[in-house]
């Protein structure tokens, strides 16, 4: 997320902490300038090497991360700034400490509040979108997705272990989960697929950012033209119609 963000946005100022417990490095939040538009950014960061991944908890946010994200999004609404989110997580952190601090409540609160925000929200799935941990920053007016990314309620291995008690059937589970960009576009969950360069997104970040920027700006321009009350109604209808094609 940080690699791509650095190539698209300017003058990024990061926000830290949830004002209740601590800062969560797994979620990066802040304000930036995007094509001369002041925007708010929320994204999940996994890290590139072992040291970074330990710091970022492998991109698995804790409750304070989601509360930090919500704090930023409410500020964005107050000042009329569109929100852009970047989804890349295997899921919310399932540790005991996270559960003790209200992991489920923090995710549910984000779903509720994002559904009724009065500013445009554009979500970008740039890697792995895992379960409620991804959904907590993905209640958006428009969702775009890199063509080789995935978005699912559970990992194929986890699904296979539950349904067949055999994680080796993950290939079968992956097919049934409909987790690819193409499947999700056909189901109406994803609004637009972003092409990846021949070298794949993570190997050519410059081209990846260029392709993503084009679609992101197109969607943002479209959503900014919709009045706030219509935006809320449209978002609610979009959420209610998920799965009906």
Task: Give the helix tally.
Answer: 11
Percent range of helical residues: 40-55%
What is the residue-mean pLDDT, rounded to a whole number?
A: 92
Radius of gyration: 17 Å
Shape: globular
- Please mark out the parts with pLDDT under 50 across 5 or more consecutive residues, or reply none: none
Distance between the termini: 31 Å
Q: What is the makeup of the main sheet?
A: 8 strands, mixed
Number of strands: 8
Beta-strand proportion: 15-25%
Which structural class best describes the helix and strand composition?
alpha/beta
Topology order in helix (H) and strand (E) letters: HEEEHHEHHEHEEHHHEHH
Task: Provide keyphrases for this structure.
single chain; 245 residues; alpha/beta; 11 helices; 20% strand; globular
What does this structure look like?
The chain is α/β, with parallel strands linked by helices. It is built from eleven helices and eight strands. It has helices at residues 2-8, 50-55, 63-78, 96-100, 103-115, 131-135, 156-164, 170-177, 181-186, 205-224, 228-240; strands at 10-15, 27-34, 37-44, 83-89, 121-130, 142-146, 150-152, 192-194. Strands 1, 2, 3, 4, 5, 6, 7 and 8 form an eight-stranded mixed beta sheet that branches. Helix 7 (156-164) packs across helix 8 (170-177). It is globular. The mean pLDDT is 92.
């Amino acid at each position: 997320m940080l690699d791509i963000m650095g190539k698209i946005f300017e003058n990024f100022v990061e926000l830290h902490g949830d004002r209740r417990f601590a800062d969560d490095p797994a979620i990066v939040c802040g304000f930036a300038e995007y094509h001369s538009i002041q925007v708010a950014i929320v994204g999940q960061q996994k890290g590139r090497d072992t040291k970074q991944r330990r710091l970022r908890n492998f991109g698995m946010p804790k409750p304070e991360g989601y509360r930090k994200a919500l704090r930023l999004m409410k500020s964005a609404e107050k000042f009329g700034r569109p929100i852009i989110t970047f989804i890349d997580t295997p899921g919310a952190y399932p540790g005991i400490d996270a559960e003790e601090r209200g992991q489920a409540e923090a995710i549910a609160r984000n779903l509720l509040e994002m559904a009724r925000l009065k500013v445009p929200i554009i979500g970008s799935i740039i890697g792995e979108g895992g379960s409620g941990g991804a959904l907590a920053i993905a209640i958006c007016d428009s969702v775009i997705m890199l063509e080789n990314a995935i978005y699912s309620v559970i990992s194929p291995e986890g699904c296979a272990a539950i349904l067949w008690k055999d994680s080796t059937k993950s290939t079968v589970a992956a097919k049934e989960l409909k987790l690819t960009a193409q499947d999700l576009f056909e189901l109406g969950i994803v609004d637009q697929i972003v092409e990846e360069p021949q070298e794949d997104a993570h190997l050519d970040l410059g081209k990846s950012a260029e392709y993503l920027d084009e679609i992101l700006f197109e969607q943002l321009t479209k959503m900014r033209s919709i009045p706030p009350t219509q935006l809320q109604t449209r978002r609610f209808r979009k959420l209610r119609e998920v799965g009906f094609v």
